[in-house]
Amino acid sequence: MGRANMNAKSLTFAALLFLAAAPAWGITRAPVSGAIDPAVTQANVQKTICRLGYTKTVRPSKEWSQAVKRRLLVEQRLSGKVEDYELDHLVPLRLGGAPRNSANLWLQPWTEARIKDEEEMKLSYAVCSGRLTLEQAQERIRLKWGLSQ
Fold first, then answer.
1. Total tally of structural domains belonging to the chain
2. Which among 2, 29, 62, 104 is most buried, taking Cβ atoms within 10 Å?
3. Does any domain span residue 59?
4. What is the per-residue DSSP string for 83-101?
5. pLDDT tens across 30-79, in order?
6. What is the value of pTM for the model shown?
7. Residues 128, 133, 135, CA angle at the centre, nearest 5°?
8. Which structural domain, as residue segments, surrounds residue 87?
9. Is residue 144 a contact partner of residue 108, using CB atoms and an 8 Å limit?
């Protein structure tokens, strides 16, 4: 094998390692930093976020959410209609995100919201099963979907 082929293979492997460690490209990043609900801690995850139906107890009303969506559509200078977006909690409620803190709220295109929701669910299971700490899961969401560092 020639030196040029070895260099090309080394470069390709290095590029793959970089891409595996890098945040996802091609997704819309939240224009907010995220906020944590101080009532949810590692010590009480089994009594809060891991309890069936927890998010229903802290999720803001539809009326409140619609009003925020209308305001954010203008503030964030987004195209389209309110219906084109989900009012997303950057740090999700199921991971102890603050329900009404503006630092945790943004409009996310529905196609990406579905992807993020799947990731949130996997992280929630990892926290509730003890494979990840609450803080580790929150940080993973912030790194991938939040403001670039």
1. 1
2. 104
3. yes
4. GGEEEEESS-GGGTB-SS-
5. 889 999 999 999 999 999 999 999 999 999 999 999 999 999 999 988 89
6. 0.80
7. 120
8. 30-145
9. no
Do the domain assignments include residue 65? yes
> Residue 74, class by beta-carbon neighbours within 10 Å (0-12 exposed, 13-18 middle, 19+ buried)?
exposed
In this structure, is the dihedral angle defined by the CA atoms of residues 76, 82, 83 and 86, taken in order, positive or negative?
A: positive
State how far the Cα of 36 lies from the Cα of 101, in Å rounded to an integer: 9
pLDDT digits (tens, 9 = 90+) for 87-121: 999 999 999 999 999 999 999 999 999 999 999 99
Residue type, 4: A
Structure tokens belonging to residue 97: 């995100």
Q: Which two tokens stand for residue 147?
A: 């403001």
- Cβ 76 vs Cβ 106: under 8 Å: yes
Six token digits for residue 125: 């299971």
Distance from C-alpha of 82 to C-alpha of 76, rounded to nearest angstrom: 12
Measured between alpha carbons, how far is 86 from 65 in angstroms, rounded to an integer? 10
**Separation of alpha carbons 70 and 107, rounded Å:** 10
DSSP bridge partners of 85? 109
Phi and psi for 14 in degrees, rounded to 5?
-65, -40
**Residue 5 maps to a domain:** no
